[in-house]
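User: Study the chain.
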Amino acid sequence: MFKRPMEFDMNSTITGNNNTVDQEMNVDINMMSNNQMDSQVSGGSCCNPISEAPQVKCVHRTIVHEVPHVCPIKTRIINHHVYKHTYRPEYSCSEENTVTNVQCGSCCNFR
């Protein structure tokens, strides 16, 4: 039976601490022997997990706290009283009567 050559292209991106690493792997399964290929591809055997480098994610949060401040404002009212003196003439009138007696003789003279 004829087997077709199998090639896998595996691309992955690893991101961490503002650095980006691109990994490219070309795997040719035909380089493995038939026994290894059967056990690894179709056999379903399990391998130990590979520990990857930990990724650190930094989350910046802004929390706004409202802090009330009491600012007392006192209003003071000052009343200024200004007395403006004005002068106006007030006219008055007085009348005086004089009496003058003119004596043209006396009654004794007419007898």
